[in-house]
Amino acid sequence: MHSGAGDDYRPDPRRWRALSVCLIGGFMALLDVSIVNVALPSIRSGLHATASDLQWILSGYALAFGILLVPAGRFGDMHGRRNAFVAAVALFTLSSAAAGLARTALWLVLARLVQGAAGGIMNPQISGLIQQLFRGAERGRAFGMLGAIVGISTAIGPLLGGLLIQAAGVEQGWRWVFYVNIPVGILAIIMAYRFIPGFCDSRRRRESFDPVGVLLLAVGVVLVLLPLIQEQSWPGRGKWLLLAAGLVVLAGFVTWERRYARTAAGTPMVDLSLFRRRSYALGTLLGLVYFAGFTAIFFIFTLYLQQGIGYTALQAGLATLPFALGSAVSAGAGGRVVTRVGRTLIAVGLGLVAFGLAGVELAVELVPGRADGWATALPLLVAGIGSGLVIAPNQTLTLAEVPVAGAGSASGVLQTGQRIGAAVGIAAIGAIFFAGLAASQGDYAAAFRHGLLLTIAFVLAALVVALIDVYAGRRAARDSATPVPATPH
Description:
The protein is an all-alpha fold. The protein is 79% helix and 0% strand. The longest helix has 38 residues, at 444-481.
């Protein structure tokens, strides 16, 4: 495993405090992916928002987030990750204030677009800083803590949103979903300047930013994500032409990056040679497939609980808490052992997720009605424990052999894959959920179980990828241990 020993690494005494600042920022950005879900009824009544407005309040954030991950990672690699991180947190804090002050639905949509852009700038800096500040087992622990934040923020968002709305009232409670970011953001900025080192490689400042590559990637990601995110809002099949066009543009991006790398113009935005490394290629694929299932769990579960069996926003949030707790505990433990156990740990985690979700499927079938929040608690805890052994360890192993100088852009590619996977999952699983709802004439439990089956299928597909990597790794280890026969004279 790449240890980073060859890049003059000196442990920074502030590295753990710097990590705590990064985790605060990461929690804030990722929380806003899920916390808004339970606030939508409050926003609808408070701003008289249409269904299209509500869709864009959710999808605009995800779209802007996904577009900027790779170019923002490249910018941080070139100009310093602390500066990019602080700018992103400042922008996120200001746009959160603007969102909370919104007087119209359009105002809120625009504020969410800026929020998403800020989150997209922030996230690759966090992974890049972990690569820069930590090595070996310490890096695994740091990514384990980041993985815990990913799991907690995704699962606890509905609970926190429900608590805020319960405390502040249905009409104005949604505003506090955004206002809560303001003091957290200010604290993160102050701590960032104190604890995060401002290292920047002056040689990389002179590189071209690869503007053609940035444009091609941005257009390609938008064309791929838009029809997936808007799957329920845009009727007809014509929207899928955008997806096909996006894949063509992304193929053009790959061609351009290869050509750019062969010229003397500079370093391409994405080092495509990384995909020749098995750990990076399979880890990126695994992240894409797993996030297709992982993110959609909470999308259909909260719909089922709130609209199907009449849970309040707070009750629905509490029902997802076991997953968050399981993920938080296991992510930290997984981070400590991942460098020793390797990809086998991820395969075990995926098996637990699939087993836990199958338990949720069974619980909803056997214990229908309002008791489902209790019936699904134990299987969701098991699934959460498994998830904690997947997200952070996969990020650790996927980025293990990436040179520190390109860690931001490499992390941006990995997270872009996760965003695309999440959009694919929500579109596909959401389509099955709503089709099942229509076919069963409003039976939310049946629709949820149908959607959950596809979720489990995505998790099992990720397990296949993990097992392929485990097998290939063991075969490579056997081949390297086999002595080469001497050539006879």
